[in-house]
Amino acid sequence: MTRKEKMLSRLYKSPSPTDFRWSELVTLMRAAGFEEHCEGGSHFIFEHVEMSFRFSMSKTHPSGILKRYQIDCAKEALEKVHFEIKGQR
Questions:
Q1: DSSP 3-state assignment of 2?
Q2: Number of domains composing the chain
């Protein structure tokens, strides 16, 4: 299992992880074809040009650990662009 596969598996585990980091989210989003943009502050826009889909999320401070609603938002975004790694969601 690759590192990205392990991260994706952790993201989708039930119950939601309480230690999923912002850096892991960015890695997964990039693997799914998203580009992130930040024009200052902590608000990021993740854009998937090919699927014409975008969403925004605030970077968590100071811990960098995602909150549950952010994990749910990330999963929803990945599902909208039909992202899979070797048969996983």
A1: coil
A2: 1
